[in-house]
Design goal:
Strands 1, 2, 3, 4, 5, 6, 7, 8, 9 and 10 form a 10-stranded mixed sheet that branches. Among the domains are: 163 residues, no CATH class; 82 residues, no CATH class. A hairpin with a 4-residue loop joins β9 and β10. With 387 residues, it is an alpha+beta fold. It has 16 helices and 10 strands. α2 runs antiparallel to α7, α3 crosses α13 and α7 packs parallel to α13.
Length: 387
């Protein structure tokens, strides 16, 4: 055994610490700080995400049980009052910055799902995170309900979130889409649901040569002006060229659109898709919309496996810090999975790391070991408890 660093310490080495420290220095985030630095705060919050801690007391006691390993983590103390103060006061945008620094590393590493086209494929959607209105009065959603909304731009090929916006629950998806500068390059394909059917915004995407695919509304007022002559494929009932009829709608989107009608055998249901892409087959347009399910799976996964539904603090800053730390941990898991060629699921990786976080062994040995071997490693790496 005798490995110098715990698995947790090895995980932290994957983070771009130098870039993070530059941001801390620029923002003077460690000014007047004696012990609990911005890096220490990130380490503690990542520990809470990795182990699924539900309270500040859980975090404090859990870390004290591993106090002999603090040296390589850079920790000096982890008192719950100090953690709570830092989460409430230290600017959450530091951790949003760390997320995008780590994202830069993940993009080149994650494997890409193969489609018949080479264009980047992204999904845009949002999910509600319900909170108690009496505890989080700033997150008002309805008269007696509170909620946050996590707006996400997901790279479908690599299942990696590329851009995040957190708002209160009252912000409509279409409004956030209009007001946000999404990092989408030309010739990318953007897939969305009906909530993003804003013709003025869609025409802006069209002018930027960003292809979109989304569901058409049942009461859409349009006129058929021709038939698209491209390849159709199985399940395609229609492939038409249309223009909007309403004066206001026509003004917002003066160009023609393509309307694909598709029959889904599995659901025994007919769908209609609007797109400004004229080169792909109609069946490919339908499959692109089906790929939008990846973002729904992403939302389900983070809600079930990350701490973003219950919060350690009640202030806006504390909540935002926890959400961004959770997303950093998601990227860190994805980075470790692909960097180490771990063949099992991300959920399996999460569970393994949770149980072996303070082992003093090489992370590769753990991820490539059988469950029996991992149990032996755990027994051999037992450390004394100090309070």
């Amino acid at each position: 055994m005798g490995y110098s660093s715990t698995l947790f310490g090895q995980m932290l080495r994957f983070l771009p610490r130098d870039g993070f420290q530059e941001k801390v220095k620029a923002e003077e985030a460690d000014r007047y700080t004696k012990h609990f630095t911005a890096w220490n705060q990130l380490v503690v919050n990542l520990y809470a995400q990795a182990t699924g801690k539900k309270s500040l007391r859980d975090i404090e006691i859990g870390l004290k049980m591993h106090q002999p390993t603090w040296a390589h983590l850079g920790l000096v103390n982890a008192v719950r009052s100090t953690i709570a103060h830092a989460n409430a006061r230290r600017e959450w945008r530091l951790y949003a910055g760390m997320f995008y620094l780590l994202l830069g590393r993940c993009r080149d590493l994650t494997p890409q799902r193969k489609f018949r086209f080479k264009a980047p494929l992204r999904a845009l959607d949002a999910t509600l995170i319900e909170v108690c209105l009496s505890v989080f009065p700033w997150a008002k959603f309805r008269r007696k309900k509170g909620a946050l909304k996590l707006h996400t731009l997901l790279d479908i090929r690599g299942t990696i979130p590329e851009f995040l916006v957190v708002t209160d629950g009252k912000h409509h998806d279409g409004r956030v889409a209009r007001e946000t500068r999404w990092p989408i390059s030309s010739d990318s394909i953007l897939v969305m649901d009906k909530a993003y059917l804003d013709f003025e915004w869609l025409y802006g995407l069209n002018e930027q040569r960003i292809w979109f695919v989304l569901r058409a509304k049942d009461n859409q007022d349009y006129r058929v002006i021709g038939q698209h002559e491209g390849a159709r494929g199985k399940g395609v009932l229609g492939d038409e060229i249309i223009e909007m009829v309403g004066l206001l709608t026509r003004k917002k989107y003066p160009a023609p659109l393509r309307l694909v009608t598709y029959y889904d055998e599995e659901e025994n249901r007919v769908y209609q898709f609007l797109t400004n892409n004229w080169s792909l087959a109609a069946s490919t347009i339908a499959r692109i919309y089906q790929a939008r399910w990846e973002i729904e799976c992403f939302f389900k996964w983070i809600k079930q496996n990350l701490k973003i539904k219950t919060f350690l603090g009640t202030s806006i800053n504390a909540v935002m810090t926890q959400i961004w730390t959770a997303m950093i941990y998601y990227l860190l898991l994805a980075y470790i999975k692909y960097q180490t060629s771990f063949r099992q699921s991300l959920l399996c990786l999460t569970r393994i790391l949770r149980e072996t976080l303070f082992f003093r062994v090489d992370i590769i040995d753990v991820l490539k070991s059988s469950l029996v071997r991992v149990k032996k490693l755990r027994d051999a790496c037992a450390v004394p408890v100090l309070f």
